[in-house]
Amino acid sequence: MLLFGQFCFDSERLALYCGQREIALRPKVAQLLAYFVARPNELVKREAVLKDLWLHGEFREAALNQSITELRQALGDSAKRPLFIKTLPQQGYMWICDIKVTRCSRKRNRLLIGVALGVVLSLGSAAYMHSNSLFSYGQSQAQPQLIIHSMQNHTGVQAHAWWGYALEGVLRTRLQQDYQLLPKSRTPDYIDGVVKEAPQQFYLSLKPLQQRFLLQAELAGRRTEVIVEQLDDNFSDIAAQLIASLTDSSGFIADQPLLVNGLSDYYRGVQALTEYGPQLAKQYFEAALIHAPDHVPSRLELAQIAWLQGHIPEAKAHFSTIELSQTSQALRARYYLYLSTFEKALGEFEHAKHSGQLALTAAQKSQQIELIASAYQLIADIAWSTTQWQDYTHAMSAAYALIGSRSFAYSEAQRSFYLANPPAAGPQQKNTLNLAQSKEVLEAAVRYYRQTERQIDLARSLFAYGQNYLVPVSESEDSLLEALKIVSRSGDKYFQVQVLTYLGFYYIQLHRGDEALSYLNQVDINEAFTPAIEQLNVLKAMAYMDIGLTTDNHQPLQEAQRRLVRLLTNERTSEMTRANTKLLLAWVALKLGDVDNAESLTRTAFKAYKLSGLDDAVVYAKYTQMYIYLLRNEPNQALELIDFEQDKDAHLMLFYASVAAHMTQNDALLEQSKRMLGELQNSQLLLEQLGQFIQQPQRSAKLITELLDAPYSVYCQSKWILE
Question: Domain containing 591: what range?
Answer without folding.
Answer: 574-722
